[in-house]
Amino acid sequence: MRELRLGLVGCGAIAQWHARALKNLSRTRVTACIDVSPERAAHLASLTEGTVCSTIDEALKIGVDALAILVPHHLHEEVVSKALSAGVHVALEKPMAPSVEACEKILAVAAQYADRVFMLTENAQYWPEVLIAQELIRNGAIGNIITARSWHNFGITPEFYPSADSWRFQAAQAGGGVAIDTGSHWMRPLRMILGEIDEVVAVTARIQEKMQGESLVRALCKFQSGVVASFDVMLATGAVALQPHFQFTGTDGEIVISALGEVRLFDGTDWQGTIVGNGNYMDSYIGVWKDFEAAVLDGTPLAADARYSLGEVRAALAITRSSESQRWEKVW
């Protein structure tokens, strides 16, 4: 196989982000845009030159080697099982599923088809600024990690929350609130750099009346290494400030990743810190598809296997439990 023919299942907002990233790949071509809404499928087809389809079966007839599953979370188990059993490779949007049980069922199905690539498209795994920070920390730029901070404060956009009955507002469809949805992008970098989380203690709130799940999370995460980091996510009701996305504090200095993609190292040489790199969050989606393309066409191992993404699901569910029990809750 010299070219990867890709079908996009679900043509909503995130599909458009992926479509823009896919234009940077030379060996992957979108051949099908699949959605129950002809209008959404047609719009995505206009961006990708793919063929409008209403079902996966239609896309298979046109010709696809892989399917990107970009549908609401509660549909993942059913759609992934159908895609894998049809004989194609699968790239699935995060979270894998709203519950650990559903995740394990998906992984069990994927295990039956070991000759096919099954990937979770957690783009934070390829976030340029995070990779810069990870390499600096690995090389001892700030010594041993003492603590860290992850912060994400964002507002409602028509793109992802088009109406008051948007599926992201519905707990049954989304699997909860911001912890399991958007929060995973800010949880993955903590895990990449600090290792696995042992337990969490959290407070959550519903500051967005339309959202059935939590729209505010303030949590402490204790990692198996003993390091404690803060994890804060909020779907804001008003304007938001440009707080740093991440702050890693070590025995010899700090690394701060700004909301504008700047990586600044504080190692004592300059009180204002030194800019050691710049990145762009949207470029992380290019990294997703380059990794998937190489895995399918070249047999290259993925940067992170699908099971690794269970860490974000388990942490989100532990945060929810902790907000109810008002005590530390184990993640694993």
Keywords:
single chain, 332 residues, alpha/beta, Rossmann fold, Dihydrodipicolinate Reductase, domain 2, nine-stranded mixed sheet, six-stranded parallel sheet, 10 helices, globular
Question: Which SSEs are present, and which pair or pack?
Answer:
Blueprint: E1 4-9, H1 13-22, E2 28-34, H2 38-48, E3 51-53, H3 56-62, E4 66-69, H4 76-85, E5 89-92, H5 100-111, E6 118-120, H6 128-138, E7 145-155, H7 171-174, H8 184-194, E8 197-205, E9 216-223, E10 228-236, E11 246-250, E12 254-257, E13 262-266, E14 274-278, H9 283-298, H10 310-325, E15 329-330
Parallel strand pairs: 1-2, 1-4, 2-3, 4-5, 5-6, 7-10
Antiparallel strand pairs: 7-11, 8-9, 8-15, 9-10, 11-12, 12-13, 13-14
Description:
With 332 residues, this protein is an alpha/beta fold. Helix content is 33%, strand content 26%. It folds into two domains: 4-122 and 285-304, Rossmann fold (3-Layer(aba) Sandwich), CATH 3.40.50; 125-279 and 313-330, 2-Layer Sandwich (Dihydrodipicolinate Reductase, domain 2). Helix 1 packs across helix 9 (283-298) and helix 8 packs across helix 10 (310-325). 47% of the residues are buried.
